[in-house]
Sequence to fold (116 residues):
Amino acid sequence: MASELGLFLEGKRMSPRKERKKEMIEDIKEAEGAHVEGPPWSTAGRFTTFDKADQARLELAMEENLQVKVRWSRLRNDFVVRTRINPEVAQAEEAANRRLEKKRRKAKLNKKRRKK
Fold:
């Protein structure tokens, strides 16, 4: 009993409730996978009123594959309209660019091999 108390005080042993909680959190993290950041947001404009910012947001929202949001900027006391390309589209474009780059590298390597 005294040895168990010593282990508990040293922080090497958790209570069963904390162990279950830790296991549940680990299971949730494994199920969800790692969080992946999307493409960065860029500022499309700054407005003094929300109505003007919302009007700009609605105009930009007409574009396909574009996400738009309005944020309040406390430091500058204005509304900021921010845009970014849709994450699924950005991921598809990135994959296509990687494939093209790989093809280019392979073609360059094959060209060098033929010269020998």
